[in-house]
Amino acid sequence: MYSLDQLRGFVAVAEELHFGRAAERLNMTQPPLSRQIQKLERGIQVQLFERDNRRVTLTSAGEAFLVEARKLLALADSAPDLARRISAGAAGTVRIGFTAASTYGLLGALLNEIGTHLPEIDVELTEMVTREQIPALVKGEIDIGLARPPFDEELFDSRLLYREPMVAALPAGHPLGRLGRAITGEDLRNEDLIMHSPTQARYFYDLVVRTLPVTNTNFVHTVSQILTMVLLVAAGRGIALVPQSASVLGIDGVEYARVEGFGEDPVELYAIWQRDSRNPALHRVMNLIEQA
Asked: In this protein, which residues make up the domain named HTH lysR-type (predicted)?
């Protein structure tokens, strides 16, 4: 093994190629510096310098070791500052779990904010539905969930990020798109519907079935991802009820129309995190979100 002092002594001699000048640079006398180098060479069992009465030169092994020694010293010098910045939340990693639909209206903007204001915080992303985010938060596998309610408000802190309407995604030219008014539940009673999965997209499934008079006899397809629903609408397979942010997907062959009965902006997305989290970077990110 070797010490940082031995590495610093080695680098000084390697750069000066003179023990006297290297010792002066390190504010020490030459004999202890020579003993440091000898101890280093014994420790790694490699001769680092060729020495004679007139000059000092690096061996081939010494030249290679110099490259790595400089890297080790740079890491050692930067480590305390990095630790302080991580402790203060100025650096570190935040792991975010997100629902696919949250990418349409929010995730990109959130990442841009973090990149602009907290550039030394790394963000790791994992796509998962809300019911997968909850155990991941509890186990510490993610730090923040971008999730749909409900969730345990005693276990998690939360912040409402945004609300939005539900709309009908219609095949282009569909008669319901030419009503000149909002679509009603009665309008949808006999229509083919592309429906949210009651297990993988339970939040949206519950929102639709408790609001509109639709039954599984209307359902021609049941899927978990909103993008898939809209693509099926474009293929003429039926109508889908989706959050308004899905309209930014810009898929050809799809029109969107207002739907009565859901109330104002019923679709909610929250940031949730464990109350007892000790990740300082998480709290910096949440402070940034609070100020947005």
From this structure: 1-59
User: How buried is residue 154: exposed, middle or buried, by Cβ count under 10 Å (0-12/13-18/19+)?
Assistant: exposed
Cβ-proximal residues to 118 (8 Å cutoff; 6+ apart), any chain: 90, 281, 284, 285, 288
Q: Residues with Cβ < 8 Å from 83, sequence gap 6 or more?
A: none
Total Cβ atoms within 10 A of residue 207: 20
Q: Distance from CA of residue 87 to its chain's centroid?
A: 19
The stretches in the chain having pLDDT less than 50 are: none
Residue located via tokens 């969107």: 256
Q: How much is the pLDDT for 119?
A: 87
- The confidence score (pLDDT) of residue 169 equals 97
Q: By C-alpha distance, which of 226, 232, 242, 244 is closest to 192? A: 232
Torsions phi, psi for 259 (to 5 deg):
-130, 130
Tens digits of residue pLDDT in 75-86: 777 666 556 555
Q: Which residues pair with 167 in a beta bridge?
A: 242, 258
Query: How many angstroms from the chain centroid is the CA of residue 145?
Result: 10
Nearest to 202 by CA among 134, 114, 256, 156: 134
Q: Which amino acid belongs to residue 48?
A: L
What is the set of domains in the chain, with CATH numbers? 4-87 (1.10.10.10), 92-163+268-291 (3.40.190.10), 166-263 (3.40.190.10)
SS3 193: strand
Q: Please report where in the chains the tokens 């002594």 appear, as a residue.
A: 9
Q: Please tell me the pTM assigned to this model.
A: 0.65
pLDDT at position 206: 92
Which of 236, 254, 99, 271 is CA-nearest to residue 167?
Answer: 254
